[in-house]
Automatic annotation (TrEMBL):
Gene3D superfamilies: Jelly Rolls
Taxonomic source organism: Sinomonas cellulolyticus
Name the record gives this protein: (S)-ureidoglycine aminohydrolase
Pfam families registered for this protein in UniProt: Cupin_2
Molecular function per GO: ureidoglycine aminohydrolase activity
């Protein structure tokens, strides 16, 4: 296992207890790593030698603004065109192996920690030309255009972006922001949050942003609504808007998670188009 956790599938033996840590409520959901087996994967249209764990999608009582997939591409597999739905933006974050990303005719190499923001309307595809499997997270959202602003595709990596330290925490809580929070062209952020052992969110955050939270590394106690839930690398959490949240990083190593949130747009109350 490398720096980032990724599922490997398989199936527990018949002697395995069916008790797990999966939780589904109106305010939050926890999908533990132990339920990401072979039999819950999906094939994806346009992809070859590929399977995906779809861990979030818009349905009643669950995610409303995004979908999230963990995608595994075998040697020689991939898709010359990955996104078929008009108006959908995406983020790809590689957690294992190497992938070739063709974006508007230009080829980029994404290794572990590679990150790409893929603007709505841009043509892109992925290929695994290595001899090993590659795994990545794919976050998708319907882009909400804003007159005077345009989100542009870009490619970077976890190692190329300096994490920003939260104020007054002595370095125990940092966030790797791949997009400037003040850039109104972007209506979603997919960041990486890092806590050193013993670091905490010291109050129950209660806010309008919906969250998808995948634990890349480490373990913690996470407050979800009224419940303290123990989570570890490989677990996924969905939090509805205004679901209180906080955490204690448990150690012995750092606790890191990939975090989705919707941002920078007024609350839409009608179906009327925006002016301009």
């Amino acid at each position: 296992m490398g720096k980032y956790y990724y599922p490997e599938g398989g199936l527990p033996p018949q002697t395995h207890l069916t008790t797990e840590r999966a939780i589904v409520t109106e305010a939050y959901t926890v999908i533990p790593k132990g339920v990401l087996t072979d039999i819950v994967t999906s094939n994806l249209p346009g992809f070859s030698n590929t399977r995906a764990w779809i861990i979030a999608r818009p349905i009643s009582g669950f995610a409303t603004t995004f979908s999230q997939l963990i995608v595994e591409i075998g040697p020689g597999g991939g898709a010359p065109k990955a996104e078929f739905e008009a108006g959908v933006e995406g983020v790809v974050f590689v957690v294992k192996g190497t992938l070739g990303l063709t974006l508007n005719g230009e080829v980029h190499t994404l290794k572990e920690g590679g990150y790409a923001y893929l603007a709505a309307g841009d043509e892109w595809g992925l290929e695994n030309s290595s001899d090993d499997t590659a795994s990545f997270h794919w976050v998708r959202k319907a882009y909400e255009p804003l007159p005077g602003y345009e989100a542009k595709s870009f490619v970077t990596s976890d190692t190329e972006v300096e994490p920003g330290e939260m104020p007054d925490v002595d370095g125990v809580w940092k966030t790797t922001r791949f997009v400037d929070p003040n850039d109104l062209a972007h209506d979603m952020h997919v960041n990486i949050v890092t806590f050193q052992p013993g670091g905490v969110i010291p109050f129950p955050e209660t806010h309008v942003m919906e969250h998808g939270l995948y634990v890349l590394e480490g373990k913690a106690m996470y407050l979800l609504n009224n419940d303290w839930v123990e989570v570890e690398a490989g677990d996924f959490m969905w939090l509805r808007a205004f679901c209180p949240q906080a955490c204690y990083a448990g150690g012995p190593g750092q606790f890191r998670y990939l975090l989705y949130k919707d941002v920078n747009r007024q609350v839409r109350l009608t179906g009327a188009p925006l002016p301009g």
